[in-house]
Write a structure and sequence with these properties.
With 228 residues, the protein is an alpha/beta fold. The protein contains ten helices and five strands. It has a five-stranded parallel sheet with strand order 2-3-4-1-5. Strand 3, helix 8 and strand 4 form a beta-alpha-beta unit. Helix 3 packs parallel to helix 5. It is elongated and about 100 Å long.
């Protein structure tokens, strides 16, 4: 080693100071925030696709209030509250709802877990023999899933079971500030006809009124070729 050192010294190579090494990762390398955001986005979008019916696989949120709600749910889910989409048949409520969930997924949140189902399917799960998990396990799953979409709320005939099950789910999500999207053909309040108050009861509509962004979609039925 000493002989080698003398040889290096004779050539002026014995005391070379190493220059700076740039080990900063690029956006395409692990360790860079953008790399990990992309990874989270891919996982979230895959989960969104698995939860979304084929008809709505291309859904994109376009309504400003829906976009605003989705962005709040991305930045701070505890402040988003409930997004209530109402309007007549075929005005794009379900499309906007799935579009809102897609927008959240594409932002690459730290956690993305969702459950999307129609109100009739939700109640079917909670009835005896409606699920292998059992009714109580289904209620708790609906209470605790980070993102929940209930499509077509108010289509079921009101019953003591329907009102109590809906109240438990909404009350838990209200108390724990978990985001929720609801679509319905019924308005929250309608002095000239049936509304959610009539269909689901005062306890439920009271919860909806306090933390809800109500978006009314208007226009002709898209399914019949109308413009929303």
């Amino acid at each position: 080693m000493q002989r080698l050192q003398r040889a290096l010294d004779a050539r002026g190579l014995g005391h070379i100071t190493a220059g700076p090494v740039d080990n900063t990762p690029t956006p395409d390398e692990p360790g860079h925030p953008e790399y990990h955001r992309r990874q989270r986005t891919q996982i979230a979008v895959n989960r969104w696709e698995n939860a979304t019916p084929y008809r709505y696989q291309q859904a994109v949120a376009t309504h400003p209030q829906v976009i605003g709600w989705a962005d709040r749910a991305t930045c701070d889910p505890r402040t988003a509250g409930i997004l209530f989409l109402t309007g007549t048949f075929g005005t794009g409520k379900t499309h906007e709802a799935y579009g809102a969930l897609r927008r959240i997924a594409e932002a690459g949140p730290d956690r993305f877990e969702l459950l999307a189902l129609t109100a009739p399917d939700m109640y079917a799960l909670m009835r005896p023999n409606g699920s292998d998990r059992g009714p109580e396990a289904e209620v708790k799953r609906l209470m605790r899933i980070p993102l929940l979409l209930i499509d077509d709320l108010g289509t079921e005939k009101i019953s003591e079971f329907t009102e109590e099950a809906t109240y438990r789910i909404l009350n838990e999500r209200y108390n724990e500030c978990r985001p929720l999207i609801i679509t319905s053909n019924l308005p929250v309040a309608n002095p000239n006809g049936t509304d959610l108050h009539d269909q689901l009861g005062a306890r439920i509509t009271s919860r909806l009124a306090q933390t809800t962004t109500v978006v009314t979609l208007e226009g002709r039925d898209r399914r019949l070729g109308g413009a929303a």
